[in-house]
């Protein structure tokens, strides 16, 4: 498996870069535009098929790994590709939320059936819900230049590093391959973005983040808190925002611009500044998660508690700045 650790990410990067470049070309059949709406932070139509490039890179990584890969890793890639097809159809023809949810539930259930988690049906049901939520929250967070691609680069790269340290070269190579595919896409998506990821990339990336997290847990590579902390910048923002909208009686399925990252962009940080700040947070979360693996249970609990306080403080600071921004922007009598 040694050569694959270098070959898989190299192939994934080249394929993702090339396919994303093709999607950026106006003459390509995959060059269809995202029209700005009430959720958008952009003002001009931009291609939204960058996820095709990402998933092409993931497919290439899976094909290189396929001869000796564990079934659950191939299931994670296969599930991601199935959701990519659904996402591409949604980007093109706007599928109903009901059919998208059915597809996500089916993919999550099939993956867990192949994984066979040891904790029983109750844990399995919780995992199905968790995988569907990961797929959707990643989609919610795909709204600013370089953000979702950066989370994939840092998140899957961290999973790959930890898997390698745990003696799981197949999982390590796949994590590195997905991270490299995201990097190929980021070459065109970092500010100013020439292309967006769209549902064909964000939804499957969220699913695969959860799927590889569970696969690593079942293989004994890490405890369940590890992938949650690695992807916590997205999990915290999307979950808190959704809960607050639900408590205010808002329709949580409607488009909006109230995520914390969206507020930062609108308050003047811009796409580049917000992405760089998010990268620093992602690197800190992933680095501390890796550093916490060899610690005892008590110290791990302390570390996780500290991160909860970090997110609470960051949320409070952004909320306070946002109230001041709204007051300054409000029309004067």
How would you describe what is shown here?
By secondary structure, the chain is mainly α. The model has no long low-confidence stretch (mean pLDDT 90). The chain is 74% helix and 1% strand. It has helices at residues 4-24, 50-65, 71-93, 97-115, 121-140, 147-165, 169-189, 199-218, 225-230, 232-247, 260-292, 297-329; strands at 33-34, 46-47.
Q: How would you concisely characterize the structure shown here?
A:
The chain is an all-alpha fold. It has helices at residues 4-24, 50-65, 71-93, 97-115, 121-140, 147-165, 169-189, 199-218, 225-230, 232-247, 260-292, 297-329; strands at 33-34, 46-47.
Features of the shown structure:
globular, 12 helices, mainly alpha, two-stranded antiparallel sheet, 333 residues
Question: How many strands appear in the DSSP assignment?
Answer: 2
Instruction: Indicate the radius of gyration in whole angstroms.
Output: 19 Å
Mean pLDDT: 90
Please give the order of strands in the largest beta sheet.
1-2
Number of helices: 12
* Broad shape: globular
The computed structural class is mainly alpha
Beta-strand residue percentage? under 5%
Termini separation: 69 Å
What about the largest sheet? 2 strands, antiparallel
How do the SSEs run, as a string of H and E? Answer: HEEHHHHHHHHHHH
Which range best describes the helical content: under 10%, 10-25%, 25-40%, 40-55%, 55-70% or over 70%? over 70%
Low-pLDDT parts are none
